[in-house]
Amino acid sequence: MDLNTVLDVRDARRREPWRPGDAFLGGGTYLFSEPQPHLRRLVDLSRMGWPPLAWQPDGSLDIAATCTITELSRFGRGLSATAAPLFEQCCRAFLASFKIWNMATVGGNLCNGLPAGPVISLTAALDGTVLLQGQDGATRRMPVTEFIRGAGVKDLRDGEMLRSVRLPARALESRTAFRQASLYGLGRSGSLVIGAADPRDGSLAVTVSAATSRPFRFWFALPPTAAELRAAIDGAVRPEEWFDDIHGLPEWRRHMALLQAEQIRRALCPPAEGPR
């Protein structure tokens, strides 16, 4: 779609004062998908030269905001970490054409803050943290689960950009389980639940997304019972936080999320900790 209110496109490598009507341009799959009458200038990040994915000395993984879904998928397929299958599972939940995969970015998926954003699901489930950078160069880091505050609502200050998201080494060692549900065979996720079992201490994290307006990550030091898991989800997610749109009613989303969470508990808990 033509954005006929945009008067200029600036290379982000060239520092200029931020002004009203500015927006960062990553892949543009959202910006050019619908009218943006409030925009006057785009700040293009495509030439920043950030490595799409980079290992850190402590074994954690940094994913650049400009990393595309195609690059993320390709990396996941070659990854030897235990949690590697989760990368492709979440990329496939994107349900987009190869043209979108080649342009859509990790940063764009996170900054849109949509409940069904599969990169949000992936990074929240693996205990990811986002690195945010202001116009003055100052940075701050926070968990993905705190960065996304609601449907389309995120903790971004004026002129601040998402630089990268970091996945800790320990999370990449986790055994994972993935459950996704949609009203249609090729429809947007109505509920997406991911489990991550830590092989070191036996803890379990269950992350609920798509069904809710923001991602919820539940951590249990010991594998929970079915009743404990259900109580944790129902105690944390307020009725109005079960998302409601054409892709699923709140009641159906809650039902599916609870069902999927229990399936994940059974799949990841040791045999001795089976259904109780």
UniProtKB/TrEMBL annotation:
PROSITE patterns: FAD_PCMH (PS51387). It comes from the Bacteria. Residues 1-172 form the FAD-binding PCMH-type domain. This is FAD binding domain-containing protein. PANTHER family: XANTHINE DEHYDROGENASE FAD-BINDING SUBUNIT XDHB-RELATED (PTHR42659:SF9), XANTHINE DEHYDROGENASE SUBUNIT C-RELATED (PTHR42659).
